[in-house]
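Blinded run. Sample ID left blank on purpose so nobody reads anything into the name before looking at the predicted structure. Input follows.
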Amino acid sequence: MKTILAITLSALLIFLFVFGFLAYFGYIWFVNPSYDKYPVRGIDVSEHQGDIDWDEVRRAGNTFAFIKATEGMDHKDACFVDNWVDSADAGFVRGAYHFFTFRSPGLEQAKNFIATVPVDGASLSPAIDIEFGGNSKEIPEKEVFQEELKIFLREIEDHYHRRPILYVTYDSYEKYIAGDFWDCIIWIRDLYDVPELSDGRYWSFWQYCPRGRVDGINGYVDLNIFNGNEREFEDMMKQTTDKG
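Blinded prediction complete.
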């Protein structure tokens, strides 16, 4: 009996080790959204991905991309310009995103983004990355953060005439976004299951894997899907344009 138990435990440990290894290095994922239900696929990238062969990424089945442009009030992503131009040349629908930092004024962050990202009516709406990971340890109160975010959003909407996209984790959504900012599109991170927001709100984009592997990119990349089919994606693009 002890021998059987020892063998069983050893087999379990080996399985867990192999599974953990494959998951850590991006060979398997905890969740793998159905292509039938979510046919519109994309990635989000920054300078951390280095040089990207966008034609290869496109041939791998991806059609949209969120590209990091700025962070805070003064950082500009070193690869933004190349990624912005090359992804469009490869046929991507792409959009720029900004990492919103807690310690910088919303107005100054908006100025940084506007100075970096050109106006392009064929692109995705500007996206704002709101998360605790990689941000300041000083967490602002809800009212303080929301005021700075509203200033940022006002400047972005006035300049680009687009409804912004908010990238959120469950933690940042619950603390700052839930029940508010209804005009914004939601892009949610969930690495384990189909997203479900506490206030029942509809989400449009889902980041489901942070360590994906895609032809054309050396190393890992975030994998995303759009919540709908190609026609619904096109409708979303039209609806995000501010007629004012």
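Unblinding after everyone has recorded impressions. Confidence is low (pLDDT under 50) at residues 15-21.
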